[in-house]
Amino acid sequence: MTEVRSQIFISYSHEDTQWLDMLQTNLKPLIRGGEIKLWDDTRIKPGSLWREEIEKALATAKAAVLLVSPDFLASEFISAHELPRLLEAAKNEGLKILWFAVRPSMYQRTEIERYQALNDPGRPLSEFPDALRDRELVEICKKIEEACASDELLREAAVAQEAKPGGLPGAAEVAETSRSAQKGLEALIKLMSDAAVREDVGKFEALFHSSAKQIGVLGYYKELHDQLHTLQLQSYQRLVGLLQDVKKSPDDSSAWENGFEHEMVIQEIKCGLEQLADPEIVSQRGVSWVPRLIDTLKRLSQALKTCDAGQMEKELGNVRRALGVEPDRLNLRLIEAARALPLTELVNSLSRVCDRLDRGRAASGAVGCFKEGVGALGKLASGLDYLIGQHDKLQRLDVELMRAEAEGLAELAGSWPDLKKEAQCEGLTEEWVPLLAEDAEKLTQAIAAQEPNQIRQYFRRFRTRVSRHFYQADLMLKKLCEELSRAGEPIATVLEMIK
User: Fold this and answer.
1) What pTM value is reported for the model?
2) Are 75 and 16 in contact (CB under 8 A)?
3) Which of 495, 184, 171, 141 is nearest to 347 (CA)?
4) pLDDT digits (tens, 9 = 90+) for 75-118
5) Rounded to the nearest 10 degrees, what angle do helices 289-306 and 259-274 cross at?
6) What's the burial of 170, exposed, middle or buried (CB within 10 Å: 0-12/13-18/19+)?
7) Which of 284, 286, 356, 471 has a CA that sits 20 to 30 A from residue 117's CA?
8) What is the mean pLDDT of residues 217-242?
């Protein structure tokens, strides 16, 4: 029987025990709040079979945090037993490898080098003065929390999809439904060799035209939304941290060492936006800000190349303003495009074609396939309606929480009643919704008790849960848009045959 992976395994050399202690101390609020569960070999009780205990812990780890140093790399036990098991689980079972450099080492000569570090390996913790080291450890712990939060998100989403028959299907089911819808439309093309069927389908030409157009519009807005999401999560937030480091130590050129990696990410996002920047489409779809953002990213990339902190700060300000306004506007356009997609009407019309085929001829393989495809198209329509509603609710809540955080938690008492009402998420059926309500109630109690530490703790917990599920809704909406585009590919052929 496969063990459930539910804890974080810490791998370290006993020569680095002091770093283990500091990590555990910084993670204590998350441990106490039940958000993470740690395991390291200090939990092995005297008299226990230590190898067996370690094997059990390895088998139940959902993530591994490696404290990398020369002694870590030199350890025969880690090299021969712990690390191979962890790397294999990362490859085959989805375990996450998280690591940070505590002392300078030759990590580049090991497989660890392939995994993204939680800190800059060129500036290990041992090289920081005490105050800066503590700050660096806090940032490392935040990244551990974020990494494990995404795992919890996927688990909750999977449970919700299995438990709630009215909710959104999982990614695999969406893909299978899309294939069935595509095959159904391809079967319709075969059936349209019959003039009577062609005439029947021709009555709904306008619906086919409108569906094909709106599927393209929907996909465009979703791709643009995803590019902004990537810009925020993978570039902007990290560049703000880099700028802070540069401003603290303006004469320390090592702060720019990772500039090339940031530049590469910006280039990828810029290329993605350029593919969406056709002047005619930009004008038609009301996104005139796209070319301006592309120019901003070009200047930001140049600032990284030349280590120009002043220009970098200016361009990050432009990015911040775009991220503060455009995702919300895109969300509204996305909803408008989804509501304008006459998928339900198309399904109803094709169902009438199915009924006439049933009455007019004996069932054939093509007719059966077409009927199954129409049913699958109906499922995609229902999934789109449900997910657009979920995405809209979480987008609005995420924006309001971002504003509350920017205003400062000291002002939260005034805005919290409205935020809490918004967080009720009426109409959503997933199992995480009551969990969000529990977090909201704990935050309400902390605000009433005027406990600043608890307010920060429960706000972060509440905020993280909303962000997790908004991110998951984003991923599923992107997947559904992709599958709708794939399922709708035969529509162009249907339109040609009607003509």
Assistant:
1) 0.57
2) no
3) 184
4) 998 888 888 888 888 877 778 889 999 999 999 889 898 888 88
5) 160
6) middle
7) 471
8) 84
